[in-house]
Amino acid sequence: MKFTTMQFQEGGCGSPTNIVGKKLLFKDEKEFLEMAKEEFETDIDTFNEVYITYIRYYPCFGEDSGMEIESGYTFCNKARGAIEVYCLDLR
Fold first, then answer.
1. Model confidence over 8-67: pLDDT tens digits?
2. Which H/E stretch holds residue 32?
């Protein structure tokens, strides 16, 4: 399964915190914001709130991670295996 877009949730299964989308799939921040408004029904209207960051898939978070799920995507530093994404904070 290839990553495209996703809504991140607190602890992996709590309240929505961010919408992320693979940067290469969008022309610019404005196009990402339009997708977020349509697909995730957010009412944020300014692309100034969109920023670039990195995520990575972790097959096992471990018990001390603070995550309520066993595996999944989370934010990370730019490194091997990281995906560059547009990000929109929902909090």
1. 888 666 788 899 999 999 999 999 999 998 998 777 776 668 999 999 887 766 666 665
2. helix 29-39
How many other CB atoms are there within 10 angstroms of residue 91's CB atom? 7
Residues across the chain:
91
Model pLDDT for residues 15-31, shown as the tens digit of each residue: 888 999 999 999 999 99
Give the Cα separation of 48 and 80 in Å (integer): 28
Closest-CA residue to 79 (of 51, 54, 59, 60): 54
Helix (H, G, I), strand (E, B) or coil at 50: strand
Could you tell me the two tokens for 79?
């490194």
| 3 state SS of 36 | helix
| Reported pTM | 0.83
